Amino acid sequence: MENLWNENDANRYAAEAKAAGQPEALGLRVYTSRIIGQVADLVLHGGGNTSVKVTDANGDAIMHVKGSGWDLETIEAPGLPAVKLAPLHAARKEKKLSDPEMVALLRTNLLDPSAPNPSVEALLHAYLPFNFVDHTHSTAVLALANQDHSEDIMREIYGDRLAFLPYVMPGYDLSIAGADLYDQFPDCEGLWLKNHGLFTFGDTATQSYDRMIDFVTDAENYLAAKGIALPGPESSDQEIDPALLEKIEAGLRTGNSPFAESLATDFRSTPSIRKYLSNGNLETIAVRGTATPDHVIRIKPFPLIVSANATADDITAAIDDYKARYRAYFERNAPNASEKKVMLDPWPRMVLVKETGLIGLGANDKAARIAGDLGEQTARIINAAEQVGTFQPINEADLFDMEYWSLEQAKLQKK
Ligand SMILES: [Zn+2]
């Protein structure tokens, strides 16, 4: 993983922040967030988050943390809303919060009430006692973090430099568990989140960023030393048979499909994708779950799988089967939720055409491209993970909790 830090660029971001009346540290935070965000093998589309702690003009400690709706790649200072730190620390000593209560706490303590919601991982950023905190969902890390023996692998690579966190649902629970873990191992330089990703931190922008790049590089080197190839993102080099695409699109536009009015597709076929789609166990591997929890919100817990020579009837049957499977997943898991859940539409967001290529689905080109990007990263992660051992992401109950998160449901019920 190439370290993209450039001293001239960093100085320019710091100087521009200063000229705009902002802390130089915020300028550096924007800069390293962007050089993280522009690398698909660190974060994709709104994934990951970053923060910086500064002192405001009144001498109060505040934190700028990534706001929802912003991508690290293109982030600007308004995308890192400022939150007062003291009330967040006070809340840690009080009762457990629900995720909506946590969001309310963060919103109440925004310096600008019109700013976007701080990241759902903001409390963890707040509780880590470092000026800079960086969080990514790196491809190489996810190939190793989605293994049952992920902790042993982490120890082998990093020794005590990282602390290991078993899977915890993002939001309030993850924030507290991560902060407690850090307190237990205050000499660590980062947190390894099983089935999720990596946190690093440091006193300076470079220290936290360098640690992220170094740790990801260590994960890549571990794979390489085992002879496991993890080629970078590749260009799509094959077209889909137009007749097949037409049949798939027709199947997806029928009935009460969310795509009845508008369907965009993003087909891609690369050597890595074809390798994944040629795996003899594709039908079992592909439905185990997503490579990092928040992907489930974009691509659902499992894809639709069809053959390259499928007829229109085959495709209709596969879609019917998908919907039945999705309803069964909802009905198995909804009764365990603490509040009543409303079922999302049971239609796929990802199609895998065996041995051929994958199709990201969306109501518009951007949504389809995002689904395609996540599908492609998943293929690359699973190729490597299955050579390390067995790709073992979070279980179905945890996937459900994430897909039907109260914060996501709240948005849905408002509509
Ligand atoms: Zn995350």
Set out the fold topology:
Blueprint: H1 7-19, H2 24-37, E1 49-55, E2 61-65, E3 82-84, H3 86-92, H4 99-108, H5 122-127, E4 132-136, H6 139-145, H7 150-158, E5 162-165, H8 172-184, E6 190-193, E7 197-202, H9 205-225, H10 242-252, E8 264-268, H11 271-277, H12 282-285, H13 295-299, E9 304-306, H14 312-333, E10 350-353, E11 357-362, H15 365-388, H16 396-403, H17 406-414
Parallel strand pairs: 5-6, 9-10
Antiparallel strand pairs: 1-2, 1-4, 2-3, 4-7, 6-7, 8-11, 10-11
Helix pairs in contact: 1-2, 6-15, 10-14, 11-15
Bound molecules: zinc ion.
Zinc ion binds next to loops.
Q: Please give the CATH architecture of the largest domain.
A: 3-Layer(aba) Sandwich
- Biggest β-sheet description: 7 strands, mixed
Helix content: 40-55%
Span between N and C termini? 42 Å
Overall radius of gyration:
22 Å
Q: Strands of the biggest beta sheet: in what spatial order? A: 3-2-1-4-7-6-5
Number of extended strands: 11
Q: What general outline do the C-alpha atoms trace?
A: globular
Low-confidence stretches: none
Instruction: List the helices and strands in order.
Output: HHEEEHHHEHHEHEEHHEHHHEHEEHHH
Q: How many helices in DSSP terms?
A: 17
User: Which structural class matches the secondary elements?
Assistant: alpha+beta
Q: What is the CATH topology descriptor of the largest domain?
A: L-fuculose-1-phosphate Aldolase
Bound molecules: zinc ion
Roughly what is the average pLDDT, rounded to an integer?
A: 95
Count of spatially separate domains: 2
